[in-house]
Amino acid sequence: MGGVRVGKYSTGGRRIDVRLRLLADQRSRPEDLGGLRVRASNGELVPLSALVQQEERPALQAITRRDRERAISIFANVAPSSNQEEALAMVEQAAKQLPGGTRVVLGGASVAFRESMGSLIFALFLGIGVAYMVLASQFNSFLHPVTVLTILPLSVAGAAFALGIAGMTLNIFSMIGLLLLMGIVKKNSIILMDYALQQREEGADALEAMRRAGPVRLRPILMTSLATMMAAIPAALALGAGSETRAPMSIAVLGGLSVSTVLSLLVVPAFYVVADRLKDRVGRHAPRPGAGQGATGEA
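^ Acriflavin resistance protein, sequence as received from the core. Prediction below:
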């Protein structure tokens, strides 16, 4: 069927095998196997159909093993309307219906997805903690860093909204975009807080300080945010090879940055003023050190 190599010939500096085999119309059908002749022990040629019984049965093209166990590899891609986490849940649900003695071992991008998601979430919270410590040392306050970091949940909401509009899901690449977003959006709050604290040192109260900081810092905030968003637009358009990895990151940055830029001018000043007033109320109602002893001595 496959032919027998009977010789070689050279052409153009290459050596090509010469094979002798049946004509195409004599080996293209399954029943043609019965017409093949094999040599018996007495030297006669007998048809193969006289020696064997031909029967069609389903069979594996190849038997693969992993860790000395028989294994079947199944490759699949996530549908555009679904995400990787939902696909993994469906695979695990289907695995429960398999007969006893079989098990499912995930591999490839699915394993990397679960391992990376845990690491990225840890990195996200670690970055927030480190940012709080750096801001606390910079502003010499435990309250002002909280005001700066209030914009982070709003930026995450904006990124999730943008990913939903674009028909994308939260995957490894969009999580990397969120990590990048955490470092970008804080600058707007820092710009506002820095100028407001300068005004507080000049004698302005919290409300007046934020009123002055808004118009003065509006232009730097818009310029830096728009420059970052313009740089992310080409990657968000998903053009060229590898766009499936760049687009989720860029869309997450675009959505989070656009929402945080607008809301940072509203939420951060409001939170700062409310927090300052609460701080003053708590300070007025807190007992002063030695106040009770002084009253007792006078009595």
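The first helix runs from residue 84 to 95.
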